[in-house]
Amino acid sequence: MSIDRVQAGKSQDVMRGQRPRLNMYVDGNWIPAGDGSVHEIINPFNQEVLAMAPAGNREDAEKAIRAAREAFDTGPWPSLSGSERGRFLYRTAELIDRDHEQLAVLETLDTGKTLAESRSDMDDIADVFRYYAGMADKDGGELIDSPIKNSISRIVREPVGVCALITPWNYPLLQASWKLAPALAAGNTVILKPSEITPLTSLKIAELVEEAGIPKGVVNIVTGLGSVVGQTLAESCNVDLISFTGGGVTGRKIMRAASINFKKIALELGGKNPNVIFADADFDTAVDYALNAVYFHAGQVCSAGARLIVEESLHDQFVASLVERVKNIRLGSGMDDETEMGPLISAEHREKVETFVKIGLKEGAKLLTGGKRPEQEELSRGFFFEPTVFDECSPDMRIVQEETFGPILTVETFRTEEEAIRLANDSVYGLAGAVWTQNMNRAERVSRSLRLGTVWINDYHPYFPQAPWGGYKQSGIGRELGKTGLEEYTEQKHIFQNINPQPMNWFGKNRERVEET
Ligand code: NAD
Asked: Does 283 have pLDDT greater than 90?
C-alpha cells in the first residue's frame, strides 16, 4: 500500500472520533491545501468537530484543472472502450457496496440525516454507478440516411472534456454520483467540488475510485469554498462543462462565469413542490405520504412536498390527522434508530428557517404546530427545529412561494380541478410534485397540466437511475439520470464520408478543357 493510500484512509479516523486532518485528491495524490488552510467539519447534531478538511484556494483548483486537462488530452481514459470504462464503474459500485455502512455513517455524521436515509442513499448511489457502467458501451453511434449519393453519414457521441461538478450539502454523495458516474462513463475527466459543509463522503469516494484503479488525473476532488474553488472552476477556460446542483443565487453566478468560454452548463436548482390531494384519495396513505413528502431530511430536500394543496371538503379531517402525527415526530441523533428527523445543517440555516416562520406569521398564515426550536435539553447542542405546519395559506405569501428548505409545510385549499392546477403551477419553480386521487382520468389530466419535471401519482419521492431528473422553469437547465443524464456529458459529432469522390469544378475551372469537351 502506498503512502498516499495510508493518508487517504483517514475517513476511518473520522469514524473513530479522531478529528483527522483530511487531504484532497488531485492528480492521484492526497494533498493538503497549498497554503495549509483547513475548514472544521461540524456534526450538526452536537456541533462537535468531526474532521479538518482542506480549504483549497484558486491555485489548488487550477492544479486540479491542469491534472484533469492533462488526463483528458493525453491520458488513456477518453480513448478506452465503453466496456472498459464500464468495468471500472462496476468495480466502484462493488466497493461502495463493500463500504456501504461506513459511507452511510459518514453521511449521517456530516449531514445529521437519519442513518436509515443515509443507507438508502448509499443503495441508490451504488445503483447509479451500475446503471451507467451498463450504459457505457451501449451507444455505438447511428447511421443516418444521407441525402447525398455515394456517401456514408454517421453520428457518434464523444466526451465533452474536462467537467467541473459542484454539489450541495443536503445529498452530498448522491448528488455527486449523479454527475460522476455518467461523466466517467462518457469518457470525461472531472473535478468534483463538494459543499464545504459536507465533504466527507466525497473524499471517501475518491479512495474508492483510486482503489478501483481509475487512472490518476481522471477524478480530482478539491474541497473549499464555493466563492473560491467553485468560482475558479466556473471561470476557467480549461473547463469544458460545469454541472451544478444548489441554489438559484449560486446558479446565476455560475452561469455568468461560465459564459467566459461558453462552457456547457447543467443546473439542478431549487423547488417549492406541490402535493395535491383530491377528496377521493386514499386517506390514510395520502396523510402518511404528505409527511414523507416534506419531512425527510428535515425538509432539506429540493423535491420536498412543501406546499400541501388539499380539496376544501377534505381539508379539516386531513389537516387534523396530519398535525396529530406531526406532533409525534421524534427528533434526535441520526445515529439513533428511533430518530425520525435529525437537525438542520447549520446554525445559519436554522436562522433562515426561523425567519421564514416570522414572515409566515406576519403574512397571516395560521401556525398549527412547530415554528420553534425544541425544548428538550438533549437536543440543545444540535441545530434542531420542530416540524411545522402553517394553515390558511395563499399563493401571494412568501412562505408559499420561496424555498424555506426546512421542515415547514404550508396548506392551501381548492374547490375545482382547474383551481388545483392553477395553485400547483403558481410558482417560479417546476421541479417535482404529486397528485393524489383514485380517478385515473383526472390523475392523467392533472399530471399532464403540471409544469414540473417529475409528477408522482399516488406516491411521493421515488426516483431511480433509469428516469430523468430535473426541473422546468427556475428549477434548472438540463436533466440528470436516465439516458439524457449520460448524453449531457457528450458532444455529438457528424462524420460524413464520400465513398466515390469526383471533382466538382465549381472554382477556377480550366475553361479551355471545359470548352473543348
Ligand atoms: P449553494 O448554492 O449554496 O451551494 C451549492 C454548491 O455551490 C456548494 O458546493 C458551494 O460551495 C458552491 N458554490 C457557492 N458559491 C459558488 C460560486 N460562486 N461559484 C461556484 N460554486 C459555488 O446550495 P446549498 O445551500 O449547498 O444547497 C441547497 C440548494 O440546493 C437548495 O436550493 C436545493 O433546492 C438545491 N438542490 C437542488 C437539487 C436538484 O436536484 N434540483 C438537489 C439538491 C439540492
From this structure: yes
| pLDDT at residue 2, as a whole number | 35
User: Burial level of 124, CB count in 10 A (0-12/13-18/19+)?
Assistant: middle
Q: What is the mean pLDDT of the chain?
A: 96
- Residue range 293-315, pLDDT digits in tens: 999 999 999 999 999 999 999 99
State yes or no: is 268 an active-site residue. yes
Residue type, 295: Y
Measured from the CB, is residue 480 less than 6 Å from ligand 1?
Answer: no
DSSP letter string over 87-155?
A: HHHHHHHHHHHHTHHHHHHHHHHHH---HHHHHHHHHHHHHHHHHHHHHTTT---EEE--SSSSEEEEE
Helices and strands counted in the chain (H then E): 18, 22
Q: Are 405 and 353 in contact (CB under 8 A)?
A: yes
Q: Using CA atoms of 337, 342, 345, 349 in order, give the dihedral in degrees to the nearest 10.
A: 180
Q: How far apart are CA 171 and CA 182, in angstroms?
A: 17
Per-residue buried b or exposed e for 10-48, using 16+ beta carbons within 10 Å of the residue's own CB: bbeebeeeeebebbbbbbbbbbbbeeebbbebbbbbeee
pLDDT per residue as tens digits for the range 242-264: 999 999 999 999 999 999 999 99
Distance 267 CA to ligand 1 centre (A): 10
**Ligand 1 pocket check: which of 302, 402, 477, 480 to mutate, most ligand atoms within 8 Å of Cβ?**
302
All 3 cell numbers of residue 227?
466563492
Question: Cell 478539491 identifies what position?
Answer: 222
Is the entire prediction scored with pTM above 0.90? yes
Pocket test for ligand 1, best of 170, 241, 353, 463 (most atoms within 8 A of CB): 170
Task: Say yes or no: CB of residue 204 within 6 Å of ligand 1.
Answer: no
Q: Kindly state the DSSP code that residue 497 receives in the 8-state scheme.
A: E
Marked catalytic residue, from 107, 210, 268, 386:
268
Is the CB of residue 193 below 6 angstroms from any atom belonging to ligand 1?
Answer: yes
> In sequence order, which residues have a C-beta less than 8 Å from that of residue 247 and are 6 or more positions away?
168, 269, 270, 403
Which among 57, 242, 245, 349 is the best mutation to test ligand 1's pocket, defined by most ligand atoms within 8 Å of the CB? 245
Candidates 302, 311, 393, 412; catalytic one: 302
For 254, what's the count of Cα atoms within 13 Å in the CB-facing half-sphere? 30
